[in-house]
Amino acid sequence: MSEKINNVEELLNAFQFKGELSEIKQLDDGHINDTYYFEFVEENGHKCRYLVQVLNTFVFKDPDALMKNVVGVTNYLHDMIIKNGGDPERESLYVYPTKDNKSYYIDKNGKCWRCYNFIYDAHTVQMVDCAETFYKAAKAFGKFQQMLADYPGETLSETIPNFHNTVSRFADFKKALADNISGRAEQAEKEISFVLAREKDCSVLLDLLKEGKLPLRVTHNDTKLNNVMLDNTTGEGICVVDLDTVMPGLSLYDFGDSIRFGANTAAEDEKDLSKVNLSLEYFKAYAMGYLSTAGESLTAEEINQLAFSSKLMTLECGMRFLGDFINGDVYFKTDYPEHNLVRCRTQFKLVGEMEKHMDEMNAIVKDCCKELGLNK
Length: 376
Ligand code: GN1
Ligand code: MG
Description:
Bound molecules: 2-acetamido-2-deoxy-1-O-phosphono-alpha-D-glucopyranose, magnesium ion
Structural class: alpha+beta
Largest sheet: 5 strands, antiparallel
Order of helices and strands: HEEEHHEEEHHHHEEEEHHHHHH
Helix content: 40-55%
Number of helices: 13
Strand content: 5-15%
């Protein structure tokens, strides 16, 4: 459930906002943090806009380490965008410090607040409306990964340990099942069997990493379509947001998670599963966009695993939704009691579709490489 702000005065005293407060609006994009738009007007009529967030400290246990990551990464991107002649105000996030120069503020109720620049003249989309949009988002995520290619990964804390470690996610799932705290496992027998039958998929990428066949990079790890801001005029992906999970990971986590969300012909929580299908057209659009910006730096093995990673990230996310349903909805925000169960069903329907179309997905990746002249 979303938080309401009942201590606006306290926040006005905590951060260095400019001007007189004129508007506060809740923005409802994510499943984890609560996000607000704050608008102020200065004496000369100039508007100052901010994105103010409550960080979910149940999910992110160490806000201090997290904000160090975010400040490090945003400063780095800010400088790089300036060097490349871009507009840092719209192409990167900037953490506005509190009045006592901290990157976040703990309020009287113990809630953790932070403040960013608001990316103006831009929007997010919750579902792909056409292949072109997805292609543009893909270019932005690929470029984001490129820009962080030389970022010192060892300086980043793991904000959620084992975030995309699918083997440990599987173990968490089995624990949820064994504890069955909510007593709701019985409502999901089919879905549970679906997960249990796919245990061996969980270790594929981790094994390749261990064998040195996949490189560890600095990755975003939450590349949902609504985590990229698209320019209102051109539709181009101008700024990647939601940087809380930027940490060392596999490029495949980012690619796969984007496909999970965006190559679905329906919403993540669509109840009518007949509407949930894999769009190969969208898959191709994303692969083209992503490979056009990140392709040069990817290894042949990473490219080989792009299609499989889409399935794995979808399975992992479905498993997390189902695990949370069984745990009693403690992690993801939900709007109604079966919300997580509904979400896991869309993910598993997609996994099934991906299994059916895996050869085609692999062939599409090959075609994209050819079209882009990537010699992998
Ligand atoms: C969460 O915060 P948001 O809504 O962008 C989650 C992702 C899931 C996603 C599923 C920190 O992302 O891992 O893939 O929901 N973020 C975290 O929609 O758990
Ligand atoms: Mg988000």
